[in-house]
Design goal:
28% of the residues lie in helices and 16% in strands. By secondary structure, it is an alpha/beta fold. The strands form two sheets. Strands 4, 5, 6, 7, 8, 9, 10, 11 and 12 form a nine-stranded mixed beta sheet that branches. The chain has a three-stranded antiparallel beta sheet with strand order 1-2-3, with no helix packed on it. This is PLC-like phosphodiesterase. Pfam families: GDPD (PF03009). InterPro entries: GP_PDE_dom, PLC-like_Pdiesterase_TIM-brl.
């Protein structure tokens, strides 16, 4: 069943078509294909090149991660520390810098100037042997990513799924909840994007609660994995904002998880695809254990949430999730996932023009 919303923008009448779930809440009819860290199976992750190729490959949403530097700048990077498998030192930010070399040190203990000396484009990950590398690529600030994407997408069609990489279990490794939320929210407001284009996601549900308290307009996505809910079965997980899954109704953990995420007003549930305890990774093999289950998806839909699992890099897993009714998918391989979605007749966003995207990349890419 479809519904439509008609409005006028700058004298032009626009119509947005929505799917209408059983509970009567509106949701976009187009399936949400997200490039995980831009699309790390294809291009070095969380960099302008990865976001460029994600757009060329036709993602609806660019998924990315944020850290906070020592001097309070929001940078786009996944890891708490500078991973030697992803980055190389080049030179100290200033003569006699005792913190040099920077590789191996936590983002929270490095300034933006120090981080900007790193080459994070030369190392191709062993687990992703088809990655395009862009030697010399610097880590970008969130503001710089917004600027590049705005150049490549002047009509502002692409969406963002932005994660706070805060460590709830070892808080000394990252900035805290208030700093993440305040700094990221300020970066959202300073961008040229409407807040409706940005989803704020986190494994640390405290940040989701804090972001909603700060600005109720922000769409929030509750990330969950086997590890983050593990201690919640018999106690309180540090990742779930003090909630106990056992306090929520449901005959399965998946149903309880959906109800718990709904209780913090998250609009999106973003669970791991395959349970970490599964002895096999493919649903065609005996013993396969999904983390994202049909019961979880059904309950999330019942309470008005959408479900977008991560990181789905097997088409057999993807097919099972599609059959169960997911609303979006986060993958390292957006180009291959798009082809499968097209085979299934799924409505997708139009890929962005390669020449324009790469021209903007050449203009905005920073190299050491």
């Amino acid at each position: 069943m479809l519904a439509s919303l008609v409005f006028t923008l700058l004298g032009v009448q626009l119509t947005i078509v929505f799917g209408l779930p059983l509970n009567g809440q509106l949701k976009p009819a187009a399936f949400d294909l997200q490039g995980h860290r831009g699309g790390r199976g294809n291009t070095i992750e969380n960099t302008l090149p990865s976001f460029a190729w994600g757009m060329i490959d036709g993602v609806n949403t660019l998924e990315m991660d944020n850290g906070i530097t020592k001097d309070g700048v929001v940078v786009v990077w996944h890891d708490e520390f500078i991973d030697p498998t992803k980055c190389r030192d080049t030179k100290p930010a200033f003569k006699g810098d005792l913190a040099f070399p920077y590789v191996g040190k936590n983002i929270v203990n490095l300034t933006l100037a120090q981080i900007k000396t790193l080459d994070c484009g030369s190392e191709r990950l062993i687990d992703f042997p088809m990655q395009l590398s862009y030697p010399g690529t610097k880590i970008s600030t969130l503001a710089e990513v917004f600027e590049f994407v705005g150049c490549a997408d002047p009509q502002r069609k692409v969406l963002f799924n932005i994660e706070s990489k805060i460590n709830a279990a070892m808080p000394q490794n990252t900035s805290g909840v208030n700093e993440f939320v305040s700094k990221q929210h300020a970066a959202f407001l300073e961008s040229t994007y409407d807040l409706g284009a940005i989803t704020y996601q986190s494994f640390d549900w405290r940040t989701l609660v804090a972001m909603k308290d700060l600005d109720s307009k922000i769409i929030t996505s509750a990330l969950a994995s086997s590890a983050t809910i593990l201690t919640a079965q018999n106690g309180v997980s540090p990742w779930l904002a003090g909630l106990r899954l056992s306090d929520f109704p449901g005959n399965t953990t998946g149903v309880q998880l959906a109800n718990a995420a709904h209780s913090i007003n998250a609009q999106v549930l973003s669970p791991l695809d395959v349970d970490s305890a599964s002895p096999v990774l493919d649903p065609t093999l005996p013993g396969f254990i999904p983390f994202t289950t049909k019961e979880m998806i059904d309950q999330a839909h019942t309470v008005g949430m959408v479900v977008k699992p991560w990181t789905v890099d097997r088409l057999n897993v993807a097919d099972q999730l599609f059959d169960w009714g997911i609303d979006g998918i986060i993958t390292d391989f957006p180009s291959q996932m798009r082809r499968r979605l097209e085979q299934r007749g799924v409505a997708l966003a139009t890929p962005f023009p390669q020449k324009r995207v790469l021209d903007c990349l050449a203009k905005h890419l920073q190299r050491v």
